[in-house]
Specification:
Layout lengths: L5 H7 L6 H14 L9 H29 L19 H25 L3 H15 L13 H22 L4 H24 L1 H7 L4 H5 L1 H22 L17 H8 L8 H24 L2
């Protein structure tokens, strides 16, 4: 087995999925502007970003090794998978996943020490969700629960948590802003699972996309993107600047058009990239709008 170089490990970390980690921290920090006593503590925002990114990377590596060992990725058409492609051993990828979770734990402990030790329990739940997505005896990603957990952890928990480490309270604005963030993160997973329906079905991986079928999964994807921008409107009455997030709506035309065209397999790969772009741009604009009107 060839030894994976740095570029291969970076590809295995699935950089196109990282907006799902960046956006909730930006939005949650933006929601904290005006409510944080003494202003935003930027080291806390940076630490929250480290936690989110490290959890995402750790989850991606854990998914790589678990799916690789089970043979789920044997005939996938998407980005490289380290174990399935024989680029790294399962042990090496597992160690990389644990190292990423370790980085997240270190940053998370610093935030817990500065706010409340209850964050340790929240962090532990995040690690468990990341590991058990495709790991353990009954991985929930194989039973169609992946979208629910992504909405909860990369939407509600990450966004509200990023506000909490600044203001040490759960605010209504953060909860409202977390909904579009969660919907966009879920759309990213749905785009990935739509592409993988044939291979996942053969491997016995009963994702929500496999259970819904191709046509209904495409409808769900469109509904999530449209719903995310509708959800932004809920934030506008309390933070008018949040309307800036709506400026990203035209970017959603590209992934929606690809999905509605009936594209399949390799032809769906660009959907993941363009959906990530929608998520990142919408998140940055929403965060800026929240901060300006905070």
């Amino acid at each position: 087995m060839a030894r994976a170089d740095l570029s291969t490990w970076l590809a295995g970390a699935r950089p196109r999925t990282l907006p799902a980690a960046v956006v909730p921290v930006l939005v949650g920090t933006g929601a904290a502007v005006g409510a944080a006593e003494g202003g935003i503590a930027w080291w806390r925002a940076a630490a929250a970003l480290v936690v989110a990114l490290a959890v995402q990377v750790g989850t991606n590596y854990a998914n790589d090794v678990h799916d690789g060992v089970r043979g789920t990725d044997a005939d996938r058409v998407g980005p490289v998978r380290l174990v399935a492609a024989g680029l790294a051993t399962p042990g090496a990828v597992k160690r990389a996943a644990l190292a990423a979770f370790g980085v997240a734990a270190a940053a998370g402990l610093a935030l817990a020490a500065a706010t409340t030790w209850w964050l340790v329990a929240v962090g532990a739940a995040c690690f468990a969700a990341g590991w058990l997505y495709t790991g353990g005896p009954r991985p929930y990603g194989y039973a169609g629960w992946g979208e629910v957990f992504v909405f909860v952890f990369f939407g509600l928990v990450a966004t509200v948590g990023s506000t909490f480490v600044q203001v040490e309270a759960v605010t209504l604005t953060a909860v409202e802003a977390a909904v579009p963030v969660g919907l966009l993160a879920t759309a990213l997973l749905v785009a990935n699972n739509l592409r993988d329906i044939p291979g996942d079905a053969r491997a016995g991986k009963r994702t929500l996309a496999v259970q819904l079928g191709d046509a209904r999964t495409r409808t769900l994807f469109v509904a999530l993107l449209v719903g995310a921008f509708v959800a932004v409107l809920v934030v506008v009455p309390s933070r008018p600047g949040a309307a800036l997030g709506l400026l990203a709506a035209p970017l959603a035309w590209w992934p929606i058009a690809w999905v509605r065209s009936g594209a399949a397999g390799v032809a769906l790969v660009p959907v993941l990239e363009t959906t990530g772009r929608v998520q990142l741009v919408a998140g940055c604009l929403l965060a800026l709008g929240l901060a300006l009107s905070g």
